[in-house]
Amino acid sequence: MSIGEVKAALDEANHLLDQGKATIEGVGAALDEVSGLALTTLHDSRRAEAEQARKAIADAIREVTLTLRAIGAAQENGNAYRKLLG
Amino acid sequence: MSDLLAQVIAQLRSAVDRLDGLAVQATRAATDVAGANTRYTTAGKGSDHPSIRAAVSHSRTGADKAHRLARLSSEAARNVTAYLNAIAPGSAPQATIAPSGPPSGEDLLSDSDRRDLGRQRMRGVLNRSVRKADELQDNAVNATDAAQQMIKMLRGPKGSDGTHSTGTGNPTIPSPSARPKIDSAEAAGNLVIVGLLVGVSARWFARTIGKTIARLKR
Question: Which of A34, A67, A80 has its CB closest to that of B19?
């Protein structure tokens, strides 16, 4: 693999991560909305299904943060390596 | 179905739809991040540099997390659906097993089909309520019809003009299109007339019996 090909691959990876990050950010914003909407409705119910739904939505929201953190770290390191190659 | 319940159901159904859509989006993001991981792996072949190694491992984690996010979103959709089915049976489509991995075109199609089915079922529930209300109204109208027929019979032969027989005592129920609209005031009036007739005949009966008894005593 030539140095030019490595650089191209790193640039592509950076672009793909940008795209993924934007999508996940959108998912996070929508989840916040859905959670506001669904949790007010599910809020009073002690039913097991409502409890599970609340938990799954809360878990998903937490996962958004973790996903964005991982994507950010990958991008940071990949771009640092790209800079080394000049 | 109360307005409040209908509102709650509509809200939760929209939440289910959105969560399903978010699962698809998160899967798409996972595919992008997995693509980045592949690029980093290729670019880092033969390199021990900590930056590229970290990029490889973090992008792997990112793809896994995005997949987990997709799973959690469809799990939330399934749970909300289960809750909907619990509070209003038939208002939500039966929960289906979430597809693992990226959704195929067929999955997306069946997903939209499933939503259509759900909408149809919801419509079914609402229509059934409306139909029940209609039936109730029909029954009320039939009752007033029957009362009218009875009044006609009690009023005597001049009431029957040959269009229907009074002999059987079995009132024929007119077809819905020919059914006259009867308002509640008229129905109440009819009932009053029935009451009066019954009262008058009861008095007449009692007086006749009294006379007969008096005659027998003599």
Answer: A34
Does ipTM surpass 0.90 in this model? yes
Cβ contact A31–B87 (<8 Å)? no
- Chain A residue at shortest CA distance from B61: A70
Determine whether the interchain pair A17/B36 forms a contact, defined as Cβ–Cβ distance below 8 Å.
Answer: yes
Compare CB distances from A12 to B19, B39, B73 and report the shortest one's residue.
Answer: B39
Nearest of B23, B100, B69 to residue A71 by alpha carbon: B69
What string of pLDDT tens digits covers the 218 residues of chain B? 578 888 888 989 999 999 999 999 999 999 999 999 999 999 999 899 999 999 999 999 999 999 999 999 999 999 999 998 888 887 776 544 444 445 555 555 555 555 555 555 555 555 555 555 555 555 555 555 555 655 555 565 554 444 444 444 555 554 444 445 556 665 666 666 666 676 677 777 777 777 777 777 66
Q: Which residue has the tokens 């959108």?
A: A26
Number of H helices, E strands in chain A: 2, 0
Nearest to B59 among A31, A74, A81 (CB): A74
Nearest chain A residue (CA) to B85: A49
SS3 B29: helix
What does the alpha-carbon distance between residue A9 and residue B124 come to, in Å, rounded to a whole number? 54
A30 and chain B in contact, CB less than 8 A: yes
Coil/strand/helix, residue B26:
helix
